[in-house]
Every structure is written in C-alpha cells, then in structure tokens.
Amino acid sequence: MLSWLDNGPVSDLEQDIDTLYQLAPGEFTAARNALAKTLKGADAARVKALVKPTAVPWAINQLYWHRRSTYDRLVAAGRGLRDAQIAALGGRGSDVARATETHRKALADAVRDAGAVASEHGIKPAVDQLSRMLEMLSLRAEGGDTPGRHVDLVQASGLEALAGIALAEGTTFERPKIVRLPVAEKRRVSEAAPDADAERRRMEEAAAARKEAEQRVEEAERTLDEARDVEAAAQRAVTEAEAVLERAQKAVEEARRARRAASEALNAARAAAR
Questions:
Q1: Which among 3, 54, 74, 87 has most CB atoms closer than 10 A?
Q2: Which residues span the domain enclosing 168?
C-alpha cells in the first residue's frame, strides 16, 4: 500500500514513484492515477505519464526491489567482466575466463530469482529475454534507466562491455558471445521465449490495449466525478426542501394554536352574551 494513500502526500515524490514500480502489474495504473490526483502541475503531469512495465522489465524491477543482493552481485560481476575485457583489449593482462564464469553464474542466479518473484504473482517472463536484458544491464557502462523502474524490453547486442573502448595498436578480438543459460535453468524459470516478431506484436498489442484501458479509466473517472456532482446538488436540494418542510410544519402548528385560541375566545364571548 502506498504511503500517500493512507497518510496524504509526502514530500519525496521519488520514493512514491519507486513504490509504484514495486506493485503488481494489475495495481499499477490505479495507484499511479491516485498518486497523480494528489499532485499539481509538472509533478502531476510527470506521474500521469508513467508507463506500466511489461512482463520482463517488471520482473527485473522486482529483482532490484526484493532480491537486491542477487541484483547487486550480477551488477558487480558484469562490471568485473567489463573491466577484464577492457584490460585485455588494451593489451593488459586479465583473467577474462574467470570473470566470464563469475558473470555467468551471477546471471543464472538473477534469472532464477527474477523468475521466482514473478511466478509469485502468476507471471512467467520469457527466460531468454529475461537473460538478455539482465546481461545488457549488467555489462553496459554507467547511466541509462533508473534501476527498479524499467518499463520496456531491452535486449543485449553482445557488445555492451566494449562500448566506447579504443583498442591498443595491433590488438584484435572476437565478438563476445552472449551468455546462454543451461536448458535445465531455463525450464525452472519459464517456457521457451516467443520469436522476435511475435513478441514485438504482443508488445504493440499490449501497449494499444493499455492505452485504450487507461482511456476507459479516465472516462469512467470523469463520469464518476460528474455523478458525484449531481449527487451533491441533489443532496443540497433535499436539505433545502427539508428546511422548507420544517418551517411549513412550524407554521401549521402556529396556525393550529391560533385557531384553537380564537375558537376558545369565541366560545367565551358567546357564553358571556347569554
């Protein structure tokens, strides 16, 4: 549960956004819209523009938030592999084979843990896509997306560790190979990944469906707000009518008392005239 849903807005918007990306996919949109309503101006617009993650980036976000030690170990192993490759390409000695094996083990653990967290929510991210994106994130240079807030699938090219590195004169190298998980490891995490075209179509369809669903939510919220306004106006009318009725009842009672007093006075006058 987001803190601002119970206690009102807090000053740290970044913390609230982090909390959004820790939610289950089915809770994201409603919570994002609720947070946006507590904000104004640029902050509200920023929150409204936040995109719900697809399955693979969502699983990686959960790895970052809920299995941080596994995530950090992968990042450290990726940095070690990158440094080893840079040293080798620069003509300096380094144990690339050991760094590669350390990274391979850390990647396998990260894929396993991310898949385990996802399965707790009934989500099965494609294991090959999960592996490639985790590998890319661990090998790339500093910068890029904020950890824990990934929203789209990003795949590794196999050259992330070499980005921006100049070769020493006379140095040659082979294209680095993407780490592949053993078949048994894949089966523990997910079924085989769909082909790239099918995944692209699925993502486009999911994005279109998400946009349409969000539009329906916004329309429903507007309708609800209008209905609340009508209800409030009707309640005010009822309150006013009740006040008018109360005043009318008091007037009736006063008229009745006056009628009784007049009747008594008439009877007294008749009795005196006899």
A1: 74
A2: 55-193
